[in-house]
Amino acid sequence: MKVIWRARVVVGCLVLVALCFHQAPGKIVPDTKLDLTAGPGAFLGRALHLWDPQGAFGQLQNQAYGYLLPMGPFHWLLDTVSVPGWIVQRLWWSVVLCVAFVGVWKLCNAFQYGVPWTRFAVALLYAASPRMLGELSITSIEVWPMAMAPWVLLPLVTPAGRSMWWRVSWSAVAFALVGGVNAVATGATLVLPALWLITRRGTVKVTAAWLGCVAAVSVWWLVPLVLLGRHSPPFLDWIENAAVTTGMASVFESFRGTSQWLNFLSAGGGPSWPAGWLYVTQPTLILVSAAIALVGLLGLGMSSLRHRGFLQLSFVVGLLLLTLGHSGAAGSPLAPQLHDLLDGPLAALRNTHKFELVVRLPLALAAAHSLHRITQLATARGLHRRVVPVLVACLIVSAATPALLGQLPRREGYDAIPAYWRDAATWLDRQPGPGSVLVVPASSFADFTWGSTKDEPFQALLKRPMAVRDAVPLGSAGATRWLDEIERRLGSGVGDATLRQALTRAGIRYVVVRNDLRYDAQATPLLAVHESLADAGIDRVAQFGPVTGSTIEQPDATLDSHTRLPYPSVEIYDAGETSSGVLLPQSRLVEVQGAPEDVPAALTALGGDRSAITSSDAAGKLTGLPLTQTDGVQRREVSFGRPANNYSPVLTAADPGTQGRRALGYAVNGKETTRVWNGDLVDVRASSSAADAAASLHTGAGSGPFAAVDGDPSTRWISGRFGRASGEWLELTFAAPRSVDGLTVQFSLAAPTTEPVRTLRLETDAGALTSVVSATGDPQHLPTPPGLTQRLRLSVATTDGKDPNGVSIAEVTVPGMTAASRLLVPASVRQPSALVFRNQQIGRSACLHVGTRPLCSESQAADSEEPTGLQRSVDVPHGATYQLFGTALPKDGDALERLLVVPGAITATASSRAVAAPEGRPGAAVDRDLGTGWVAAPDDTAPRLTLRLPARRSVSALQFLTDPYLTASRPTGVELSFDGGPPTRAAVDPEGYVRFAARTARTVEVRFTRTRPLLDFDSATGIARTAPVGVAEARVVGADDLRKALDPNGPSGAVCGYGPGVQVDGTRVDTQVKATVRDLLQRRPVPITACGKDSGVPLRAGRHTVDFLPGGGFVPIQAKLTVRALTSGYAPPERSVDVVRSSPAELTTDVPARDEQSVLVVSQNYNEGWEAYDESGHKLTPIRVGGWQQGWILPAGAEQLVTARFGPDSGYRTGLLVGLVCCLLVLGVALLSRRLAPDPPLAGARRPGAWVVAGGGLVAGVFMSGWIGLAAVAAAIVCSWLVPRRVAFGLVATVVGAGTLVAAVQPWPGGDAGVTSVAVQASVLFGSALALLAGETSYDLSRLPRRMMGRSIP
């Protein structure tokens, strides 16, 4: 019989192997680490050092050591014999499932639970549990501990005669094989063995020996883990917080094995975990998974279950570990306090769902016994003995449905990384000279049109150092902020010298543009990236792969408004020569009071020939540096999961943000710049805004609440919840009680908030009033409750309900109210030599350019954070006179377009326009440039274009010219009106002509009545819309000579006194702007200079307001005030040095002679672990340069060799070596201990009394679910006393089944009863408590205390 069942176990393993190979056959899918299939040998080699100079500008290995055993060697060995990557993956998955399956089989045999077929069945159910199948093909290393858990416990519980040392050593060996990738998941495998020893008697010696062996085999990953925690940036603050990780861990979801929050996550690319998504959305799978858990629960309650106390305790402890942090319906009362701990000192334990195995394994073991007893009961009742096995087989098949349907992996597999990516890596590695590689645009993950690697391919393919902004940057907070600044510049479509200088100073030689990123993975439009690089003078030097872009372009169809251009898959741009190290004389350094992202702009403002140390880094190390004070270290909230467009507007000092996180952003040292309110307002808040960092409806930083009171109707507050409008509110708080009579509100109906508000509720301290409002974008006077108030809240009550996608308010006006929002710059104790202020988020135009050719789409536009200019409040400790300079961008609007009017030419006006950018102005239809054109707004039902001639002319026809890249439907029918006369219908012929009898006229009004539709498909939604009518050029036959072209190189701008308005403490300073027409059309930055008699700006000691306001068609984005002495005088040049790395954690460089104290800078992240020494062995003082780069201070002296090493690396490697020795020693003990005499088996501890068990149950119930848990457990206690055990089991099945049915009827995402229903959670709590207590108490009433009986008992 044993041979037969062993054969059946082999067959079971083969079935599991077949299931694994059934998943996306032939495709490599993104699982755990790209390096494991693309280059496991190099990856394991890098894991032998703590410091990795190749990635993220130098970083600590992120748990790479954990892959040294067993996953890494497994992949490496198969890779060395040329096994295809996809087969290696499937073999590893097969190992995981088979290890789990055989482990539970053997554990059931050891405990003697059930009979062979029930052991076989529960082993399969364990291997096919929701957690196993849900995560197997996503992050298989995280379910490996769950697979190994039975093996860690098995040696301790085996009934075979074995010595104590055999038991503890083999348990430790199994634990060593769990690996150390995730310490929490690995540690979770120790919970059950620990509880086993706790529930035995006389185990002090065994426990001590076991703990010693476990500690010994953990050295190889514990030492690296400690060093990683000590020297790495606080990346745990940058990932999901406790509220997220425990948000779905309700009692019910924890009971059935679906508490992992990623099961419930689905985005545009589909579910994050496809199989996990099925387990929480499909009613059948909800019922099946709960039924399996229920079978195990019934087994836990059976008094015939061996070691019942151990399994019951394990089950309760597991549920507590999973649910203590859940704060939802029937959540734990300790959740808020636990969240504080999990987001603080216990952050490493934040993902409590990793304790899933502590619940699942006891339930599986108990199920083996339960199924046997159920079979016996069914047979005794006359059922055929095969009925229960057949039903169990159906249960197994149902539970494994996602695997049987091949739905475990994401639909992102690929055959192999394309050859052109390897070619690009080879080209980069062959280039001479130093310099790292920056991969753009930013993306949370590397999701490509050909498949998804999740990790950047260059991570495994490239030898040259590289960096990329992804979801979880691990370099440093400073480098991440700097990368975000680069991404903002690239994403703006505006490039200048600052971008190029910032890249080369960071040691970046090449910029790689990955045009084959999947559209939904692109955080920044590719058009903007290319335009920014071109404007910055960064040229393409190589390209690889086939062209990407739209595949449906036709005369009557386009994709994303013709913006998906055929770029090569991979392009490489050369930023210019750089060096791996540089020697900076102190006289060339400046101190910047700001953050890393402020340094590039500050240095460019100072001429671009200096380097910077931030004030917090210079303190106590370098003194006497010229101080540049910026408005940096701005208090903003960051959405850590987004790689771009992830910053909120600047917050007030008291604003905690909207995400409820412990850390607002990537924290750096320094006082924060905050938002303050002046005038009659002290605050403006909203229920949400599209400027919020994590808004689901995100339009840009300029859509915050302040936009509704800035006096500019072209700006607006937009609510931030996608698909919601009703219930959103905007609240104004006044400095003093005042009347709000005469309130005027102006809504905006521009996309994306096109649904009109119908009723608006106004709340004040004096009362509330609901008003019906007009469905227009015009200002509306609304009645308000009479009386004084210190607050005014405008709440959206109802909307049309047709397209509830946010609401926006352009302006709220209260008579006599003045409102000003400005940024408060923290004071400096030193006198600044320069003041540099800037708009960090300048937005993006709707028209981006390829060369001089605009491609316009409203979807490309992003709001500027400060469309009304720069308004700052700053302190200076001493009086000084500053020279004023600035930079502006052309500002969309009438003032700008007046600068584009050609005297004596035809002018044009229209009923609407698709974009606000000047390239889409009506006048673009008469500028002799087919690349520009006018397009009506999508909601314009009667579009009109009016042409006005400078004088009356005889005209006989119109011709409408089109362009293939103008996203517009072609006109085929029009109504013409001359000089206001009656309209005349006419047809447009195929050549675009509208012919009519010659007549003399000055104005021609064209109303478009029919079109040839152009379908515009949207990549994000797949929805096609008919493009509005548009015209590239309108020729007036008889007056075509009046259609005049703009001279792109012609001068433009604003003359002295008509530039942007600059006010210092309310005193106006005249400015001028010099620009070209091309600058205006392509939104290029242009200089602002002070003009007039005296361009100097005197500032006395104290606080000042400095305002750079829009004017003359320009909006300031940067302001600079400098003293003359800052830019004068000679400073020795910086000198490049060659940095040689003898190992990843050691470098040397020859430093030339120095006449003054200097700073040696290496192009890598600063880390306190790096130590440098000169030739004499003197330790150099480390200093952070530019807010993130590694530097050391060198005194003046002769040429010498500087050696630097990463100190913790020696401890890291020692830990690995000692850990290896310890593992070998424990393995030796395990092999030799079989010869030792067996020790007697451990005896179980005495079971606590019924009252103790009941009391413990009440406490556990309260901890899990508060009053609900207390009531459920109390009810279970009463029932356990009052009803027979079999009735109790029936009641358990009925109540849990009813709760499961409720959850299945309301599955995620349309419903969420499994997470939020109190009844569902109470049913599981009651059922669990009753099942566990049914064997502890008796239904014999004579055994109850007399007081509870209500009568005397003789």
TrEMBL record:
Keywords: Membrane, Signal, Transmembrane, Transmembrane helix. Residues 1-24 form the signal peptide. One of its GO terms (molecular function) is transferase activity. The keyword NADP does not apply. It comes from the Bacteria. The chain crosses the membrane at residues 91-111, 132-153, 173-196, 208-228, 276-298, 310-329, 387-405, 1215-1237, 1249-1275, 1287-1306, 1318-1339. Residues 674-763 form the F5/8 type C domain. This is Arabinofuranan 3-O-arabinosyltransferase. It comes from Kribbella rubisoli. The lineage of its organism: Bacteria, Bacillati, Actinomycetota, Actinomycetes, Propionibacteriales.
